[in-house]
Amino acid sequence: MKKTDNQRVVITGVGLTAPNGNNLGEFRHSLLNGVSGITEYEIRYFGKTLAGLCTFDPLKYQKKKEIRTGTRAGSIGVYCAHEALLDAGIELGKEYLPSRTGVFLGITEHGNVETENEIYEISKFNYDTKCWSHYHNPRTVANSPAGEVTVNLGITGPHFTLGAACAAGNLGCVSGLQQILLGEVDFALAGGVSESPGTFGIFAAFNSQTALARHEDPTKASRPFDKARNGIVISEGGAVFTLERLDKAKARGAKIYGELVGYNYNSDATDMVLPCAERQAECIRAALAKADMKPQDVSIVNTHATGTHAGDAKECQALRMVFGDDCPNTYFNNTKSFIGHCMGAAAALELAGNLPAFEDNIVHPTINVDDLDPECALSNLVLNKPQKVQNVTSILNNSFGMFGINCVLIVAKYNQ
Amino acid sequence: MTRDEIYKAVIDILSEIVEDEDWVALGLEDDLKGKLESMDFLDVIMELRKLYGVEVPEADYGKFATLKGCVDYLEPFLSKK
């Protein structure tokens, strides 16, 4: 049954900060020109490593006090939310009531940075817990990053952050869509954020797991699908979309980036960290069914691949199960090869980076593939150079996380 | 520390916590309440603890109502530093 305009939800604004761009234009330029955002990085206790760090100016939308008392993830969320509103041409209180606006942000983890900082701070005072900050609780409650956005923007509708490991960015978008369709809000700021490079623990843990990327050239460290891949590059970032019903968007003459047409989420129920190709394939198929699409209808698959041996191979196995060799107009790419793994922001950022393809019909590549791992071979895997294609009409965005949480989101080119 | 130095130390702490307030322009007897939120005030107490080792019990928080009150309270602790 054909959906009416008030049953359709569209993206009308994009705000982002990535290790290689602080707005969609810069980010897209980097993705089409092979510009990596990975640099050398040093963090206490762990030492020298690599990371993807953002260069946005937090003072653009926050006072110094907000930055001091809040969190890096909150600052990223605030920056992205403001940029998305500006991009959408929406002034809260004018097009949408603050009480009918919601903020839904995905996170992989939150509170590690703040807890490590406090322990480090009290270590200077012989571990006297009286020196533990009274800001620790508001900084580390799980709704903190989305809450900081509401306080900064005066949004009085609902807010929450979703812990969904590395599938969180997609799930943030899905939650925004659902809250609109449920009638809980008229307008959503949805996406994902990550402050993960601020915690030494994540580097140390991935290192202990032998899953932390190393390379003498930082820009080549994130190399999904390459035989010599050796792990994940930890990155920060954020992407927030303005989501609204199509009828409202049309009525105000909004620019429409795309329509959220399908999604699915499920659980592997097999392992804490090792992915399950069968469940991933099921998730992709279910998302396609909800979108009333066949695999052949998908123009771009943005892969989740992070640069680990098992993860990349399993995802490619899942993709072969769904797409086989019978999808001549389906192209596969990877965005983490440029920016590393932005954790809770990853899926949202990767979706954002692909959205301009609806206009320019260019598929950005996966870079750093010098020697393609046969286990990761896919038809139409776009390697190292962008590929011009005939007509990009849909993007399928994969995201998978620890404890086998899978979330697939499909966005279609806006079609009247 | 002299009273002047203690006053400057308090102003430095306040300026770090609430940057957009002109603390130097504030009179010694002016009320601090409207200028500091509750979490800001706890910041002041925390900084005194960390920077000068001064432990202010909750029962004494009321003595920090003005800049003069702050200096008066801190003088016995800091005059020998």
Question: What would you note in describing this structure?
Answer:
The complex is a heterodimer of chains A (416) and B (81). With 416 residues, chain A is α/β, with parallel strands linked by helices. Helices cover 32% and strands 22% of the residues of chain A. Chain A has helices spanning 24-32, 64-69, 72-88, 112-123, 136-140, 144-153, 168-181, 200-208, 246-251, 277-290, 309-323, 336-339, 346-354, 357-360; strands at 9-17, 38-43, 47-52, 101-107, 159-163, 187-194, 234-235, 237-245, 258-267, 300-303, 331-334, 362-363, 387-388, 394-401, 405-412. The longest helix of chain A is centred in the first third of the chain and has 17 residues, at 72-88. Chain A starts with 8 loop residues before the first strand and ends with a strand. The model of chain A has no long low-confidence stretch (mean pLDDT 97). Chain B is mainly alpha-helical and 81 residues long. Chain B has a single domain (3-78), classed as ACP-like (Non-ribosomal Peptide Synthetase Peptidyl Carrier Protein, Chain A), CATH 1.10.1200.10. The radius of gyration of chain B is 11 Å and the shape is globular. In chain B, 20% of the residues are buried. Chain A binds chain B through residues 63-65, 69, 125, 130-131, 133-135, and chain B through 17-20, 39, 42-43, 46, 49-50, 55.
Topology:
The complex is a heterodimer of chains A (416) and B (81).
Chain A: E1 9-17, H1 24-32, E2 38-43, E3 47-52, H2 64-69, H3 72-88, E4 101-107, H4 112-123, H5 136-140, H6 144-153, E5 159-163, H7 168-181, E6 187-194, H8 200-208, E7 234-235, E8 237-245, H9 246-251, E9 258-267, H10 277-290, E10 300-303, H11 309-323, E11 331-334, H12 336-339, H13 346-354, H14 357-360, E12 362-363, E13 387-388, E14 394-401, E15 405-412
Parallel strand pairs in A: 3-7, 4-5, 4-6, 10-11, 10-14
Antiparallel strand pairs in A: 1-8, 1-9, 2-3, 6-8, 9-15, 12-13, 14-15
Chain B: H1 3-17, H2 38-52, H3 67-78
Helix pairs in contact in B: 1-2, 1-3
